[in-house]
Design a protein that fits this description.
The chain has 26 helices and 21 strands. The protein is of the alpha+beta class. The N and C termini lie far apart (94 Å). It is an enzyme of class 1 (oxidoreductase).
Length: 721
């Protein structure tokens, strides 16, 4: 099917099987010379904002009340929640249904960047593509809005483009300056050129040889899943009936006209099925766009061509605290990015065609490609180890394309609004940064097509959940008023904004002198147990919701997330009255999620019972000697009792559950003991860089050194009394 381009973004409604609206805003219509004043007026014009967030049960009751909604949105990603917020703030009676959790798909698996698209601007200029240029311009305006609407969840990030050829310096400098120029008044900070020495000072891990200099420009960065949730919660506070874990089974059509008039859906958690009536139904399901369109018309051609981007998380020492790195032209033509995020480092690529029906599972090949690219940019003194990959995931980009097109790299993220003969409105394509503009164009089309009584868009300048009373120093009040650790307080302030006080109020007393409240879920991350309780209030209903979207633990360290799961399940069980059987199911489901979707499988595959032992004889003998210090009885294996005995001899206390976890990491055949061969496989994998951070290896080495110091006689220790 050939696409029809709408002139200047005007909808072509009526006539054929589909009317297409390319979502490129008319800045003359939507921009106001008095920008800040317009934002304040927009915020004041919206309907009342509820102080108390409705519970999920109350939301479901509203959906099942039999009342007809003006707008019903299918999909709880950034675009779907944006549509619900836009409609609700216009005074429309709004519903939103999501079959999984809010932001469970593409919207939580992004690069975490809020950007206009440097690469798209390059293509627009090289190909003289005015439509693509306008898309970049719109995205840069929306970037400014997104940073202002939730400053606690977002901020400006300097990104370095390292230059290794002299001719690239003026080429990229002109391109980046044009990027600043297109942004105009919305430019975050002016880009600048760095000398080689200054670039290495700011990014000391960078490869030095052949480095000419660097260019630094600014884009935005955010906590994507929490941003998505903030949009959903804000929509709920403005009266939208939003429900996660509510699956649309089929579309309802009026017998007389054949027009879509609602949906038949099912509460995934209880199995209860019910109808929801609406004047207008909006399909905002991202990569699953075509499956909903085929509920309306089985013969409709596909308009969505997914593309996968693989991301890995590495320790924070791989990048500076506040400087990213990007190469728009890698060896295979893809973009590689290297960004600090949540005190870790994200590295990843874009543009690999994928099958949307498949689970987005990162492969070992994907991870090794990224590591290879990372090695190309870091100096030889920085050893890039496979074992330093703490988490890995694959995000699907729902690009809109002609069904005959095979090349996703040639596509920009233009969004498209389509209206079927039966009145189903579909919003497809686009990108995270432009979610608000996409929602605006969609609701505008809905108002026109279905003759809804509503005003113009009122979301420009609207502050999202947690932003209203947030300030950069809010965390200090949390420390002073509640006795939270400074790191925990900063995390709560940057995650919940002014709602951080509600989390602090329910934080448990630690029983220590300091911190007074705030028990951590895992020691190395600032997430506390109270966040699990608060997460349930934010509509979290599974352990996966907590580890991946209410907190970001699964995206930062799968092993830490796995260790936190039992406690998370226990807390949720109290809040949601789970049975013992339900707790086991939740634990197993969450572990499966970590294993397949977050890279735990490819991490654990680095050490298997068939792993090769490639150690020189001297190393084998050294490690055997270390092993025998624990295996005093020469059994050929060590157990928790053996480790406890050695620890007691050096006056180290460690609880049994922790010891069990430590041994379980290395116990490849899961028989409750670590055999000599398993230990040698571990040490071999550590030497090759395929495993890092093994607690058993560190513990045994430390114990060996302590025992050796205890064994030094007085006459060889430098004297004594």
């Amino acid at each position: 099917m050939a696409f029809q381009k709408a002139v200047k973004g005007t909808a072509l409604i009526g006539g054929g099987a589909i009317a297409t609206v390319f979502g490129l805003s008319q800045f003359s219509q939507h921009r106001n010379k008095h920008g800040a004043l317009a934002q304040v007026q927009a915020a004041e014009a919206v309907p009342g904002r509820q102080e108390h967030l409705p519970t999920r049960e109350q939301q479901l009751a509203a959906l099942q009340s039999g009342a007809q909604f003006d707008v019903l949105v299918i999909g709880g990603g950034a675009t779907g929640c944006g549509c619900a917020l836009d409609a609700a703030t216009r005074g429309l009676k709004t519903a939103l249904l999501e079959r999984d959790d809010f932001s469970s798909g593409t919207s939580s698996r992004s690069t975490k960047l809020i950007h206009g698209g440097v690469r798209y601007l390059q293509k627009a200029i090289m190909r003289l593509d005015f439509e693509q240029y306008r898309m970049v311009k719109e995205a840069l305006e929306e970037r400014a809005h997104l940073l202002q609407s939730a400053p606690h969840l977002s901020g400006a990030l300097p990104i370095m483009l390292p230059i290794y050829k002299w001719w690239q310096l003026p080429y990229y400098w002109i391109g980046i300056k044009l990027y600043d120029l297109v942004a105009g008044r919305q430019c975050l900070k002016s880009s600048y050129v760095l000398t080689k020495s200054r670039a290495l000072e700011l990014f000391p891990m960078l490869r030095r040889d052949k480095l000419v200099g660097a260019i630094v420009y600014y884009d935005g960065q955010h906590n994507d899943a929490r941003m998505n949730l903030a949009i959903a919660l804000t929509a709920a506070r403005y009266g939208a009936a939003t429900a996660n874990y509510t699956e649309v089974r089929r579309l309802l059509k009026c017998p007389d006209t054949g027009r879509v008039c609602g949906v038949h859906c099912r509460d995934v958690l209880t199995g209860k099925e019910f109808d929801v009536r609406a004047k207008c139904v909006i399909n905002a399901t991202g990569p699953f766009t075509d499956s909903v369109r085929k509920m309306d018309d089985q013969e409709v051609p596909n308009i969505c061509q997914p593309s996968a981007g693989v991301h890995i998380v590495m320790p924070g020492y791989y990048s500076p605290d506040n400087m990213g790195l990007l190469d728009p032209d890698t060896s295979d033509g893809r973009v590689i990015f290297f960004l600090p995020w949540e005190k870790m480092t994200i590295a990843g690529t874009t543009d690999s065609p994928t099958d949307v029906t498949a689970h987005p599972i990162p492969t070992e090949e994907d991870i090794n490609f990224i590591l290879c690219e990372v090695r190309n940019y870091l100096g030889p003194d920085v050893e890039v180890r496979r074992g330093d990959v703490l988490a890995a995931w694959s995000g699907i980009r729902p690009l809109v394309t002609n069904p005959d097109s095979k090349d996703t790299q040639s596509l920009s993220r233009n969004h498209v609004v389509t209206i079927s003969n039966s009145g189903l409105i579909t919003i497809a394509g686009g990108k995270w940064t432009t979610y608000r503009a996409m929602a605006r164009d969609t609701i505008d089309a809905a108002v026109r097509e279905h003759n809804l009584e509503a005003g113009s868009c009122r979301t420009m300048g609207l502050q999202l959940e947690g932003a209203q009373d947030w300030s950069p120093t809010l965390y200090i009040r949390l420390v002073q008023d509640y006795g939270l650790e400074s790191e925990v307080a900063q995390h709560l302030a940057s995650t919940y904004g002014d709602k951080a006080f509600e989390v602090a109020k329910i934080a448990q007393v630690t029983g220590k002198r300091w911190p007074i409240v705030g028990k951590r879920l895992v020691s190395e991350f600032p997430y506390i147990e109270a966040e699990v309780v608060y997460g349930v209030k934010e509509y979290a209903r599974t352990a996966v919701d907590i580890i991946s979207r209410r907190t970001r633990l699964a995206f930062l360290n799968v092993q830490a997330a796995d260790e936190a799961l039992p406690r998370i399940v226990d807390i949720m069980a109290k809040e949601l009255n789970w049975s013992e059987q339900k707790k086991k199911e939740e634990l197993e489901t969450a572990k499966t999620f970590l294993y397949y979707e977050m890279g735990y499988k490819v991490k654990t595959d680095q050490l298997t019972d068939s792993s090769e032992i490639s150690l020189v004889p001297a190393d084998i003998e050294r490690y055997k000697k270390r092993f025998r210090m624990f295996d005093k009885d020469k059994k050929g294996f060590i157990t928790i009792l053996d480790v406890q005995r050695v620890l007691q001899s050096i006056s180290v206390q460690m609880d049994e559950n922790t010891l069990h976890e430590i041994l379980n990491e290395v116990d490849l055949n899961k028989n409750g003991q670590v055999e000599l061969n398993e230990f040698l496989q571990l040490m071999s994998a550590i030497q090759k860089g395929r495993v890092s951070g093994s607690r058993l290896a560190v513990l045994m080495k430390s114990a060996e050194e302590n025992l050796r110091r205890q064994a030094i006689p007085v006459d060889r220790s430098g004297g004594g009394l």
